[in-house]
Amino acid sequence: DNAEVTIASRTQARVQIGQAQYESGNLDAALTTFQSVENDFKNEFGAESQLMNGTIYLDQGTALKEAGQTEAANTRLKEVATATKYMANNYPTFNYLKAKMFYVLAEAYYQRGKVFQAKGTLGSLISEDRYPDIQEQARKRLAEIEAEEAANDNG
After folding, report:
1. pLDDT of 57-74, one tens digit each?
2. Nearest-10 Cα torsion for 88, 90, 93, 98
3. pLDDT at residue 124 is higher than 60
4. Neighbours of 37 (CB within 10 A)
């Protein structure tokens, strides 16, 4: 057995377990799994896990907001910014995953009522043309936000 292959296979399996937990709605278990992987590996598995940490913080914060728990929601949504900063500092070469994390950050800003920051972050992703899929996702989300703003201004 090649020890490195075994470690990579086990780590990939842990990431897949985290994904399954996330997709089944078990966010707390998924967060624990992804935090563990990120803590243990500062490679692509760690970067992918950090992106999932931020995504889970967003999902949890959004759910808390929808449940009327504004203070708890804002606390959780602020963790997305912390996770994004951590990712930018600790995974400097994983640009695609960082761009995806900035999209998550834009949504967290929006959920917190920080529309200017959300629009600015989306604008930055749109002007970055290395990742057309993220660019298109950001373009669509920015259009949705601007349409909402226009409807509110006219309503």
Report:
1. 999 999 999 999 999 999
2. -30
3. yes
4. 23
- pLDDT digits over 11-47, tens only? 999 999 999 999 999 999 999 999 999 999 999 999 9
SS (H, E, C) the chain: CCHHHHHHHHHHHHHHHHHHHHHCCCHHHHHHHHHHHHHHCCCHHHHHHHHHHHHHHHHHHHHHHHCCCHHHHHHHHHHHHHHHHHHHHHCCCCHHHHHHHHHHHHHHHHHCCCHHHHHHHHHHHHHCCCCHHHHHHHHHHHHHHHHHHHHHHHC
* CB-based contact 122:142 (threshold 8 Å): yes
> What is the rounded distance in angstroms from the CA atom of residue 122 to the CA atom of residue 120?
5
Burial of 150 per CB tally in 10 Å (0-12, 13-18, 19+): exposed
Arithmetic mean of pLDDT over the chain: 95
Taking residues 71-94, what's their average pLDDT?
Answer: 97
Tokens describing residue 87: 């990712």
Q: For residues 77 and 63, is the Cβ–Cβ distance under 8 A?
A: no
